[in-house]
Every structure is written in structure tokens, then in C-alpha cells.
Amino acid sequence: MKKLRTYLALLVILLGNLSFSIAVAINFTPLFKWSLTDLSTSELSREVIMKNYTILLNYLNNPWIQRLNMPNFESSAQGLFHFSEVKKLFMLNYSILAFSLIFGFFLIRYLKKKNELSALIKLMSYTMYGPLIVLILLLVNFDRIFILFHEVFFNNEAWIFNPSIDPIINVLPQSFFLACFIFVFILFEVQLILTYLLLKKNLRRNYEKNQPVINV
């Protein structure tokens, strides 16, 4: 039972940190602005493109916005369907984040009370290599990973946009998605390190607190 609690806590921490990293990356507009350095694929100005991108983000982020209408970009039925599927993934990510934060808070408090933090910290020391490996794979073979990602999360080919009927794809180059993936896993790595250090500090403080006071 002790091992099960430890592995469960590790899973919750990983999911929480990853979902938070994704939430930050998908809303970090400087990444998109950076990808607009080459506007040869669009006749629109940077300001107009950013305005439409903000509309797209609002649609993807808000469950009460049911229709996507970008004033300067036409969208096909297939394109709108794909964005509706992306919206569901956004909502799923936010749900995982909320669950992980709430459940993880109480679970870690319980482990602390049971003096089981040391096992969790040991496991976490191994997981910190994961994001670094993923980053290397992204840099080596992003094309294949990008396709595999869509094959896993979408059971159709609606994600393959035709620029003539879904011109938004002209301002969403693959370099933008690569930057997003890299940013996610850099954030993920930083968060894992910080979580590891915070847990170690908490364990040390707990140990010192429980040491008997010797009066001389």
C-alpha cells in the first residue's frame, strides 16, 4: 500500500506539472509572435494576424464560446471540426491540472504525515531525465513526433489543413509547434527540479522538527 501511494503521488505530480506546462505554453503569445518573423505566406499585417489568433485562443480556452469566427481567415467545416477537437483537449488539460493540484495537495500532505516523502523524492530523482530525453527526440525527429502526436490524439485526418480553404495554417508553421513542444518540456523539466527541491527541503525540515531536544 505504501508503494502504491508513492507511485500514485508521483503520477499526480507528473500530470500536474505537465498539464501546467502545457497550459502556460499554449497561452504564451510571444511564441506565436516569434513565429511571425516571416509573413511571406500571408498578406495580412502582424496586428491583424495577432487579433485573429487571440480570437482563436479565446475560443479554445473558454467552454462557453461555442463558435469560432476569425474575421480575416475563412474556415472550412473540416477546419472548424479540428479546432473543436483541439478545444476538447484544452478542456481535458485544464481538468487534469485542476484535479492534480487538488488531489496532489492532500496526497502529499498525507505522505508527509506518514513519513513517506523520502520514497517519493527518490522516485522523482529518476523522472527528471525524462523531459531531457524528449527534448533530444524533438530536435532530432520532430516531423515524425508531430505526425504521431496527431495520430494518437485525433482519429481522423481533419488536422491536415488545405491552405486554400483554411488559410490560418499559413500563419501556423511547423516551427511554431516545435517551439511550443520545446517550451512545454523545458518548463516541465524546471518544474520537476523545483518540485524535487521543495520536497527535499520539506523532508529536511520535517526531520529537524522531529529531532529530540537534548538539554545539557
Brief synopsis:
With 216 residues, the chain is an all-alpha fold. The chain is 72% helix and 0% strand.
What does it look like?
The protein is an all-alpha fold. The protein has one domain. The chain is 72% helix and 0% strand. The chain has helices at 2-26, 29-35, 46-61, 77-113, 117-127, 130-153, 174-209. Helix 1 (2-26) crosses helix 4 (77-113), helix 1 (2-26) packs across helix 5 (117-127) and helix 2 (29-35) packs antiparallel against helix 7 (174-209). The longest helix has 37 residues, at 77-113. It is elongated and about 65 Å long. The mean pLDDT is 90. Keywords: Membrane, Transmembrane, Transmembrane helix.
Features:
mainly alpha, transmembrane, single chain, 7 helices, 216 residues, transmembrane helix, 72% helix, membrane
- Estimate what percentage of residues fall within beta strands: under 5%
**DSSP helical segment count:** 7
Shape: elongated
- What radius of gyration results from the CA coordinates? 22 Å
Structural class determined from secondary elements: mainly alpha
Question: What is the element string, with H for helices and E for strands?
Answer: HHHHHHH
Sequence-ordered SSE layout with sheet pairings:
Blueprint: H1 2-26, H2 29-35, H3 46-61, H4 77-113, H5 117-127, H6 130-153, H7 174-209
